[in-house]
């Protein structure tokens, strides 16, 4: 899969991850989509290394699940590190 296809996959995965995760993560939609792309790349890279996943096809269920899973992980980490601070 080419870079632009993975970029589009990451944008969609970031949107799906944002819809799956409850609550508000700091940064807004643009940051969420950017983190989705990072998460998709991270998920694809780790999936290729750990599971030997074949990510050559855009419509592969493996590619989508790894991208969405990676986006969720990155969004959760972002929320833990830079989430909205509650003031008393």
UniProtKB/TrEMBL annotation:
As for membrane topology, the entry says: Multi-pass membrane protein
Q: Which domain of life is it from?
A: Bacteria
Ordered alphabetically, the record's keywords are: Cell membrane, Membrane, Transmembrane, Transmembrane helix
The membrane spanning regions, by residue number, are 27-51, 63-82
**Transferase is among the record's keywords:** no
Intracellular or extracellular location(s): Cell membrane
A Pfam family recorded for this sequence? Transgly_assoc
Question: Per the record's keyword annotation, is Transmembrane included, yes or no?
Answer: yes
Which family would the database say this protein is a member of?
Belongs to the UPF0410 family.
Name assigned to this protein: GlsB/YeaQ/YmgE family stress response membrane protein
Q: Which organism is it from?
A: Leifsonia kafniensis
């Amino acid at each position: 899969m080419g870079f632009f296809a993975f970029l589009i996959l990451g944008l969609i995965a970031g949107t799906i991850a944002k819809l799956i995760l409850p609550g508000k993560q700091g940064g807004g939609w643009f940051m969420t989509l950017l983190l989705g792309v990072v998460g998709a790349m991270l998920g694809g890279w780790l999936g290729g290394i750990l599971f030997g996943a074949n990510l050559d096809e855009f419509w592969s269920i493996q590619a989508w699940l790894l991208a969405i899973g990676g986006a969720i992980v990155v969004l959760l980490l972002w929320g833990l590190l830079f989430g909205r601070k509650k003031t008393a």
